[in-house]
Every structure is written in C-alpha cells, then in structure tokens.
Amino acid sequence: MGGGASVIDLGYACVDDERAGRTGVSEVIYGAGKTAVQIAGIVEAMRANGQERVLITRLDAAKAAELKDLGCAFAYDETARCGVVGGLPGPDGNGEILVLTAGTSDLPVAEEAALTARFLGNRVHAVHDVGVAGIHRLLAHVEEISRAQVIIAVAGMEGALPSVVGGLARCPVIAVPTSVGYGANFEGVTALLAMLNSCASGVSVVNIDNGFGAGFQASLINHLPGREA
After folding, report:
1. What is the pTM of this model?
2. Do residues 77 and 104 share a domain?
3. pLDDT exceeds 60 at position 143
4. Is residue 228 part of a domain?
5. Among 195, 152, 154, 155, which Cα is nearest to 171's?
6. What is residue 16's three-state secondary structure?
7. Residue 2 pLDDT > 60
8. How many angstroms separate the CA atoms of 110 and 99, rounded?
9. Its GO biological process terms (predicted)?
10. Number of Cβ atoms within 10 Å of the Cβ of 57
C-alpha cells in the first residue's frame, strides 16, 4: 500500500486520509460505479488509518449483499441506499435539522440526506408527503418548521415546496430537486430551475437527487459557532 503523507494509493483509488483534519469530515465513499471489492478495499484502508466511521452512499441492495459476503461489517439502509461502518455518533449539533418531502416518491433522496446528517452528528426530524398539492399537510407542521435550525426541502415535479417553506421558516432552507415527475419534469431539471428561481429569501439549492450534499451542507450550518437553539 503506497502513497504520500496524505494519500493512500490503492491503485484504483487514492484515499484522502487527512481530509478530516482539513475539513472536519473524513472522506465518504460514493458507491455507484465501484465494485464491492473496491469498496471493501477502501473501507479497509480508511479503518486501518484510524477512521472510526465510514459512510457509503449510493449503495444498491445487490452490491450491499456482496459487500457483506466479503466480510465488511456495516449497517445498510435500503431506502437511503447507504451503508454505515462503525455506527452513528451521538448528535452534537446546535439544534434540529428538519427534512421535508413533497411526496413519498422523494423518500430515497430525503433519507440519504437524513442519514448523512445523522452520520455527521446531527439530530434529525423527518416529515414526509407534505407537498403543496395539499398545503394543509405542510401547515400542520408549522411548529416543527419554526424550531428547526436548518430545513432540507426535497421535491420533484414542479419543485414548489422549498419556496413555500422559505416563506414560513426563519432558518436556512436547502432545496433538493429530485428526478421524480412526468415528461416535462425533464428528470429533475424543471424542479431544479424552479428552486433556483425561488422568490423566497434564504433558499439555497443543491444538484438533482443530491441528498448527500444537502445533508452535508445542513450539518455545516448546524455546527456553526453561536447558533445554539
């Protein structure tokens, strides 16, 4: 196993073993496009260099089963399509991250965001299927919205949910467009553009289906000094 002071060169991957020191968060494994053998090798390298916990995103069920057969011990969340090696830490963020989904079809992306945030040491509360097609469902959760430190709003179709939430919340809102929708949704492009054009202040946007990015950004906000609940 070769490499410099900050990189473990496995041939098929260069593991950044000093990322936690630079950014506060150790490297995360993106599972899509990697074989189970490659993922197992990266996990082994991380653990051997002192990384207590490892998050594997975009891990499908078949690959997760293969990874377990290789002897890699981890907990698998099939909805979030994520694996966690070493368990989840206790929350040490300032307050609560609220994850809202417009519809049940947005659950995989929302659960990826929620699990990422929990992995990074946050208390997370999730409320599902509160899209604007039935606005009363969202308004029933005004109390949760008002007490959140950060909100992640996940929506496909026309992507209207974050704009409405942005008009109700006093905290940052991270909008996540999903590829859920019919033809004119253009696999999430319509929702993405709607969120980028939101008239509500305090709304930022991550890429289509990027639950991981939303969970990571929410964690950064929830760990800022001086934002205690």
Report:
1. 0.92
2. no
3. yes
4. no
5. 152
6. strand
7. no
8. 7
9. 'de novo' IMP biosynthetic process
10. 20
Cβ-defined contacts of 194-201 (< 8 Å, 24+)? 194/158, 194/159, 194/160, 194/163, 195/155, 195/159, 195/162, 195/163, 198/162, 198/163, 198/166, 199/163, 200/162, 200/163, 200/164, 200/165, 200/166, 200/167, 200/173, 201/166
Greatest extent of the chain over all pairs of C-alpha atoms, in Å: 58
pLDDT at 145: 96
Q: Is residue 27 part of a domain?
A: yes
pLDDT value at residue 5: 56
Whether residue 227 is contained in a domain is answered as: no
Phi, psi for residue 111 in degrees, rounded to 5: -70, -30
pLDDT at residue 229 greater than cutoff 60: no
- Per the structure, the complete domain to which residue 52 belongs is given by 7-85
User: pLDDT tens, 160-207?
Assistant: 999 999 999 999 999 999 999 999 999 999 999 999 999 898 999 999
Shared-domain flag, residues 124 and 203: yes
Tell whether 32 and 64 lie within a shared domain. yes
Q: What average pLDDT is seen over the chain? A: 93
